Amino acid sequence: MASVASVNAAMASMTQSAAVPSEAMQKAGAHACTDITGFGLLGHAYEMAHASEVCLMIEAVRVPLLPDALDLIAKGMLTRGDKNNRAYVGDTIEIAPHVSREMQSALFDPQTAGGLLISIEKSKSEKLANEIGAKIIGEVQTSYAGVLIRVY
Question: What would the pLDDT profile of 19-33 be if each residue is shown by its tens digit?
Answer without folding.
Answer: 999 999 999 999 999
